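In response to reviewer comment 3 from the previous cycle, which asked for concrete evidence that the modeling workflow produces usable outputs, we include below a single protein chain processed end to end. The sequence was submitted unchanged, and the resulting structure tokens are shown without manual editing.
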Amino acid sequence: MKAINTAFLLLALHSSLCLASAGSWSQQSSGGTLTTGEELLVGRVLHAPTVVPRNAPVKYITWKINLLTPPPQGLEINLCSTTWCQPLPALAGHLTPVRHLSAGGVFHFIYNVRYKGQLIPSMTVVRNQLTIGYGSQS
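The workflow returned the following structure tokens.
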């Protein structure tokens, strides 16, 4: 009987540790301005909080981007980590990564407008918002 109680205790402890390593984090930053097409605007780095386990896998990503003016024709947005870049289809959305990403890493947005010449009006990113949902490895 003692062995069964010990097994249940270990199982409960393992389950609570798994639950403790799941969650989400969110950060936002200002973006910057593009005045000329075909130039890259690299947003500020968004860091995971230190409490996020370094190897916790990303389960979902949501984002919201606010621009000062309507998006220009040819706007391309990528969300990147140190090992991966994902084109984003809209100014806001939700996606599930198709490969393993670490939720404990760093992320940034990269903007480009497929247009040659000066952008009138210029494109100003007022805010980038990113939420990373992560789960446990087990």
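The first strand starts at residue 23 and ends at 29. We consider this sufficient to address the reviewer's concern, and the full set will be provided in the supplementary archive.
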